[in-house]
Amino acid sequence: MPLFEPLDETRPLTGRLALGVEYDGSAYCGWQRLKHAASVQASLEDALSKVAAAPVKVLCSGRTDSGVHATRQVLHFDPPAARSQKAWVFGANANLPRDIAVRWVHPVPDDFHARFKALARRYRYVILNQPSRPVLERANVTWCRDPLDAEAMHRAAQVLVGEHDFSSFRAAGCQSKSPWRHLHFIEVHRHGPLVVIDVQGNAFLHHMIRNIAGALVAVGRGEQAETYLAELLTLKDRAQGAVTAPACGLHFVDSLYDEAYGLPAEPLGPNLLAFLGEWTGERPLPDCPMVEYRRGRPLVSLIATEE
């Protein structure tokens, strides 16, 4: 897919719409609308409501915490008025603050749900590993002045791949009913001064990635052995874990859906990593029940197959 796709301004769109959104989370309490603080959801709903001249409510693929960024947050809404592709994108952006932008809009069937139809979510945690503090990148990386062994961090992280009880990596206030999650992959690579933790899974617990990042930094510094994450996984006790890494380094970079929905493909963010050249949806998803079920395969046949 080319980077520049013309937006149609002649055909009013009716029915459910999906939006791709990018935001700098520094000034927000997170995605979810709250009464006492600014949120990304409130800003988007207010902007879209002005375009529609009627109230608009949106649902996202995954909520982000205070200070966390997104380069491909996917959401859906049922518009109360028909507007063209160009009107939705340009109109919303004209009414949004400079740290939030709509990247695309795409018509989807009524059964599309940004959260419940997502096959996977992907995040990148970006660490600037150099002696001097960051200046231009200060809002979207975490700074570590101590040398990090990215290869040791990568090896230590591989024990997390697969389906596990991630109790040692969930926040104390996490409201999820189950600590079990399925990590499709986790990789740690160095690109010059940047150390990037790239992780994809079916879903994530509150602060899960930031707690994993904190533990991996302890390994990278040499404070903990490469067996550290395996030990934490076995303990199932958050109190035994490392510090929670800062929110500013975390980026929500992808939410994957069945190809039948035809959502636009984009280069994965953040733009600091554009030179890697990886586009969304290139990696195969694991053959697991949740993915197959959300692709529309009946649960009964899944159970029969597994038996």
Automatic annotation (TrEMBL):
Reactions listed under catalytic activity: uridine(38/39/40) in tRNA = pseudouridine(38/39/40) in tRNA
Keywords, alphabetical: Isomerase, tRNA processing
HAMAP family in the record: TruA (MF_00171)
Record-listed E.C. numbers: 5.4.99.12
Keyword Aminoacyl-tRNA synthetase attributed: no
Quaternary structure note: Homodimer.
GO biological processes: tRNA pseudouridine synthesis
Gene name of the encoded protein: truA
PANTHER family listed in its UniProt record: PSEUDOURIDYLATE SYNTHASE, TRNA PSEUDOURIDINE SYNTHASE-LIKE 1
Pfam family, one: PseudoU_synth_1
Catalytic residues, chain numbering: 65 (nucleophile)
An example Gene Ontology molecular-function term: tRNA pseudouridine(38-40) synthase activity
Binding residues annotated for substrate, in chain numbering: 123
Family: Belongs to the tRNA pseudouridine synthase TruA family.
The Pseudouridine synthase I TruA alpha/beta domain, residue ranges: 22-116, 156-258
Family matches, as InterPro entries: PsdUridine_synth_cat_dom_sf, PsdUridine_synth_TruA, PsdUridine_synth_TruA_a/b_dom, PsdUridine_synth_TruA_C, TruA/RsuA/RluB/E/F_N
Organism: Bisbaumannia pacifica
CDD domains: PseudoU_synth_EcTruA
Role according to the record: Formation of pseudouridine at positions 38, 39 and 40 in the anticodon stem and loop of transfer RNAs.
Protein name per Swiss-Prot or TrEMBL: tRNA pseudouridine synthase A
NCBIfam families, sorted: hisT_truA
